[in-house]
Structure prediction request, 405 residues.
Amino acid sequence: MSNVEKTVLVINCGSSSVKFAIINPKDGHVYLNGIAEYLNLPEARIEWRFEGQDKQSQDLGNKADHDIAISFLNSNILATRPDLLDSLCAVGHRIVQGGELYTEPTLVTDEVEAGIEKCIPFAPLHNPAHLIGIRAARKSFANVPHVTVFDTAFHQTMPPVAYRYAIPEELYTKNGIRRYGAHGTSHGYVAAEVAKQLNADPENFNVITCHLGNGASVTAVKNGKCVDTSMGLTPLDGLVMGTRCGSIDASVVFFMCDVLGYKVEEVREIFNKKSGLMALSTTTSDWRGITEGYEKGDEKCTLAFEMFCYRLAKYIASYYVPLGHVDAIVFTGGIGENSYLMRKRVVELLPEVFGAKLDQEANSKARAYLGGSGPIHSEDSKVKIVVVPTNEELVIARSAFKFVK
Prediction:
């Protein structure tokens, strides 16, 4: 068995899943990746693939939880590769919300766990799952340091005009109500990566990064630093998403509760899990299904497609205000990397004054799942338009590795 350099185990926990990968932080080499799904349900299972081997899978047992999944990773999967187990120098955890408490990778301690718990109100769907994963991983991998990497950290450079809300000051100073953003790990990575691809100086380069998946956000990056972003106090704000409504008049909540008789918890459930593309199409939250319906002329899928593109184009256009000028627009995430129809429509919606033009052939070929990415703008486009596959796992691995060193 070949010698393996020092590696980092990257863990990304959702409420019913654990994504994991073992990565060489120096060159990005992936030795193992997999996911445990349907946790706490009867069909709980785990699948994984070692580099160069076929995918394997295993049922975890009725209602297996995060503890069982991470223990199985250690005791069963990695037991077959002791060289990989021995190579681990850190475990890196993706955390959606760190509030103003954490602005950089942080060594996990009991105090840090408590800090992440304090931020649960700002990410009620994400932080509880992250904590479960951290606690399970600290048990199974007790002999290596654990490092948290926060999605909100990249956005901590926003000025007050971007992150403050026009509400009484004490709601910010005492209760932390402000814009935090999300997907910062991805936005920071692709902003740096596109500067590298275009041979630009990242400290003299303005880019709008569009992270588009089931969750979606767009960020204005000026000279390598975030100056505005679409997600707000929680990941509910901003763009239309898979099941999230995005930006909405706060009075809709009052109307639903005071006039229609909904409870606050019911409104939260609707806005987070029953809205967005799912609500507009009435059939699916999956962009592939939306696109298929759009191409067939389905009225509801067409509305979902057009609203998604319209909202994104509005945000892109508005970010010329904090940036002054834009050198590049970047598309990333599952939808951003693969939906050439979405990219085409968004660029069409941008006002002519911005001078953004696509090379239609390059755009149609840029699909990450087929191995395609890179520039998709025409030669006479005033702004570069680029598809950059995101790699949050590599960012987390490198962040954890630097911290450990």
In short: The chain has 17 helices and 14 strands.
